[in-house]
Amino acid sequence: MTHHGAPPTAVDSPRHRGRVRATVTIVVDSFLLLPIGALVALVWANTAGVSYFRFAHGLRFIVNDIGMVFFVGLVTEEALEALMPGGVLHRWRRTLLPIVAAVGSVLGATSIYVLYLRERSEFMLVEGWPVAAAQDVALAYFIAKAIFLERRGPVGFLLVMAIVSDAIAIASIALWHPSNPEMLPVAVGLMAVAIFVAAALRAARVDRLWLYLVTSGTLSWIACYWSGIQPALALVPIVPFLPHRSRHVGLSAEAQRATPRRFEHVFKYAVQVVLLFYGLVNGGAVIAGEMPGAWAVLLAALVGRPAGILTAIGLGIAAGLRLPVRLHWRELIVVSLAASAGFTFALFFAASVIPAGPLLNELKLGAVSTAVSAVLAFAAARLLRVGRFARKPPGPGDDRPVPNSATAPA
Amino acid sequence: MRSLGRWSVALAGLAVVSTASAIDFALPNRNGSVKFAVIGDFGSGESSDHEVAAQMAAFRARLPFEFVITTGDNIIGSQDDPADFAEKFERPFQTLLGAGVRFYAALGNHDKPSNRSYGPWHMDGRRYYTFAVHNVRFFALDSNRPDRAELAWVDEALRSSKEEWKICYFHHPLYSDGVKHGPSLELRVLLEPILVRHGVDVVFSGHDHVYHRLTPQQGISYFVTGAGGQDVRSLRRSAATVASFDRDHTFTAVEIAGADLFFQTVSRSGITVDTGVISKRGQGPPGGGR
Question: Are residues A124 and B190, on separate chains, in Cβ contact within 8 Å?
Answer without folding.
Answer: no
